[in-house]
Design a protein that fits this description.
Length: about 450
């Protein structure tokens, strides 16, 4: 990834050992009564007592647990899937429907809301929840993911491989084929072009905090630099140190705005852990940010699927146990179980509604596409026994017809079902941790889904 704006100069390469330790701001975290808290419930290692063979296969101790995140707009029982409402809406689904299907919280996107309609509009409306008629807890990410991923053209960074691009070794200037670089990073922040109209914008740690405070979510994320798996080790080190410095600036601005915006509900701030696929960088990031007065942490960055559990475990072995951890951007069943058993408390992904718009629906025996001709006369529900609104009221044949007729209602009904499927699976995993049946539940669920 390019790290230079036209005015900047290259930063020197450093080793992880040479990176300075974190310096915690002098300003103290808000006193009690903020309305935000986290309580650990039961630990997977205690309730299920995994065997030595299971621990060895995992690469280390299982760090999964249940818990409760308390926010000014309600509690979140963890582990929990946080549905994504990118532009203050879960695509094609009413907020009331999200509540009915059991969603505990929604996550919106600071980058998109900054561009449209503007953070000041949400502030005037009373905050994100009031604006979208969602009474429960809300999250916003910092905008860093979209600035960087849209900037390099790699939209699903978790799917990137370390294999070099054609005619390109591992490169700090990597751009997806046919894409233009829209973001340029310097020490102070990022210049980027809007994907909507090409206008030039500036994000810095301070601007990200100002935007997110105006949006008004219960949980926000610090502004970080997202690297890709194409970046060199040297650049990953430089970027990690920049993200550490930006974290300190985010904290300082967050505390300033919290004191200034008297009468507003307290907004929790999560630090974001980067470090790509490198164990020493991930652990250093957790050590540095874990010493800062964040309310919780997000595990972000480029992740190879086969290393997901290992990286999550590295991070959670280092992070403070009494603060929640959010894994950014997963929803496939095997990834969900891997994340939960290695200590992720919450996670989000757009996948349930994204695949729904292409007619894909989840079932216990796998994911299927409703566009197939065999569904034309299939008058059963999307999933037998599912308690969602779509399954209770509509048939596969009808939704197949809607999709073929290009009617928007098809996306709505499949999205409702897919969100319910993922929410319920995570709810059941939480209950399985509490009852001591997690590993049996995992084996049965994944064995059936991927059969």
């Amino acid at each position: 990834m390019s790290v230079e704006s036209p005015e900047s100069s290259p930063a020197p390469s450093v080793t992880a050992a040479a990176l300075p330790a974190a310096v915690v701001p002098a300003r103290a975290a808000p006193a009690g009564g903020s309305g935000f808290a986290f309580t650990v419930g039961k630990r997977l290692s205690d309730t299920s007592q995994p065997s030595a063979e299971q621990v060895a296969a995992n690469g280390g101790e299982f760090l999964g647990r249940t818990g409760t995140i308390t926010t000014p707009h309600g509690d979140i029982q963890t582990p929990a899937f946080i549905a994504v409402g990118t532009k203050a809406t879960v695509k094609s689904v009413l907020p009331e429907a999200m509540a009915d299907l059991g969603a505990q919280a929604l996550l919106a996107n600071a980058y998109h809301l900054y561009l449209q309609p503007g953070a000041e509009i949400l502030d005037e409306a009373g905050g994100l929840g009031a604006f979208m008629n969602w009474p429960g807890p809300t999250f916003t990410d910092s905008g860093g993911f979209q600035v960087m991923s849209l900037g390099s053209g790699f939209k699903k960074v978790i799917d990137m491989k370390t294999t070099p691009l054609p005619d390109q070794a591992l490169s700090d200037d990597a751009v997806a084929a046919g894409k233009e670089r829209l973001a340029h990073v310097d020490e102070d922040g990022v210049w980027f072009k809007s994907h909507l109209n090409g206008d030039r914008h500036r994000f810095s740690p301070e601007i990200s905090m100002q935007v997110q405070h105006r949006i008004g979510a219960d949980i926000m994320f610090a502004f970080d630099e997202l690297t890709t798996l194409q970046n060199s080790r040297g650049y990953q080190e430089e970027s990690l140190e920049r993200t550490r410095r930006w974290a300190l600036r985010c904290i300082d601005e967050h505390f300033r705005l919290t004191e200034e915006r008297v009468g507003k509900p307290y907004q929790a701030l999560f630090g974001v852990i980067q470090g790509a696929q490198y164990e020493d960088l991930r652990r250093k990031a957790c050590s540095d940010l874990g010493a800062m007065p964040f309310d919780g942490f997000g595990i972000g960055g480029a992740l190879e699927k086969e290393n997901l559990g290992t990286i999550v475990r590295w991070c959670n072995e280092e992070l403070p146990e009494n603060k929640p951890r959010h894994l950014l951007g997963i929803s496939e069943p095997d990834d969900i179980f891997t994340a939960i058993e290695n200590g992720a408390d919450t996670f989000d992904c757009v996948s349930p509604t994204r695949v729904a718009r292409n007619s894909a629906f989840y079932t216990p025996t796998g994911r299927y596409n409703l566009s197939g001709a065999k569904y034309k006369r299939d008058f059963g529900p999307l999933q037998e026994g599912c308690d969602c609104y779509a399954c209770a009221n509509y048939s596969r044949a009808y939704i197949h017809h809607l999709y073929k007729a290009k009617e928007m209602l098809s996306a709505t009904l499949i999205s409702i079902h897919n969100e319910r499927f993922v929410v319920k699976m995570v709810d059941d995993a939480r209950l399985a941790i509490e009852s001591g049946d997690f590993f049996a539940f995992k084996e049965q669920t994944l064995g059936q889904y991927y059969s």
